[in-house]
């Protein structure tokens, strides 16, 4: 009698363990994984040789869903572009798989444009788009990047840190 009562929970244990394992697997990537993938892709496809006398550059998507491009030129001039991806509208691509331009479009004047150490003076303005020169981009990568940017645009507020 006591032995049969103790055996019932142990019979259900494998079923319980299987259910817990299956519930623990994710079927879709989370926001951090998409950010990491997007940053890796952007760093591989960005073409610094398309910019004359570019000293260094930084192109990232932040955890609070900002797309930021900072370029520093050899003469010390800096250009900075930033947009909140909630304001992202779409992207356009012109070029080939070898080289081209991704044009990031926003809904309105939602791109922050700043220049520093410019001979013409420092500029703070807003724009509706900015260009990212790219190289060695496959159509699948471009489509996946667009899908990722759309994910950030439509992500629920709770996932934004």
Explain how this protein is built:
By secondary structure, this protein is of the alpha+beta class. The chain contains 3 helices and 8 strands; from the N terminus they run ααββββββββα. It has helices spanning 2-24, 31-45, 139-154, and strands at residues 54-61, 66-73, 78-84, 88-95, 99-106, 111-116, 123-127, 129-135. A 5-stranded antiparallel β-sheet has the order 1-2-3-6-7. β2 and β3 form a beta hairpin. α2 (31-45) packs across α3. The radius of gyration is 23 Å and the shape is globular. This is DUF4468 domain-containing protein. Keywords: Signal. Residues 1-28 form the signal peptide.
Strand/helix succession? HHEEEEEEEEH
Mean pLDDT over all positions: 86
Class by alpha and beta content: alpha+beta
Distance, first to last CA: 56 Å
Kindly provide the radius of gyration, computed on alpha-carbon positions and rounded to a whole number of angstroms.
23 Å
How would a crystallographer describe the biggest sheet?
5 strands, antiparallel
Quantity of strands, as a count: 8
As a percent range, the share of helical residues equals: 25-40%
| Number of helices in the DSSP assignment | 3
| Count of discrete structural domains | 1
| Lateral strand order in the biggest sheet | 1-2-3-6-7
**Quaternary structure type:** single chain
Form type: globular
Low-confidence stretches: none
Into which percentage range does the β-strand content fall? Answer: 35-45%
Signal peptide: 1-28
Keywords: Signal
Protein name: DUF4468 domain-containing protein
């Amino acid at each position: 009698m006591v032995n049969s009562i103790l055996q019932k929970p142990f019979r259900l244990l494998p079923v319980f363990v299987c259910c817990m394992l299956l519930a623990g697997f994710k079927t879709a990537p989370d926001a951090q994984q998409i950010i990491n993938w997007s940053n890796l892709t952007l760093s591989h496809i960005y073409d610094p040789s398309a910019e004359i006398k570019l000293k260094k550059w930084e192109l990232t998507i932040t955890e609070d869903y900002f797309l930021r491009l900072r370029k520093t030129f050899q003469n010390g001039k800096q250009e900075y572009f930033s947009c909140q991806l909630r304001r992202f509208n779409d992207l356009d691509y012109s070029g080939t798989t070898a080289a081209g331009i991704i044009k990031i479009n926003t809904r309105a004047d939602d791109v922050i444009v700043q220049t520093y150490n410019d001979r013409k003076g420092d500029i703070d303005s807003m724009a509706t788009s900015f260009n990212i020169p790219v190289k060695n981009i496959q159509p699948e990568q471009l489509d996946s990047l667009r899908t990722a940017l759309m994910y950030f645009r439509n992500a629920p507020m709770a996932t934004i840190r």
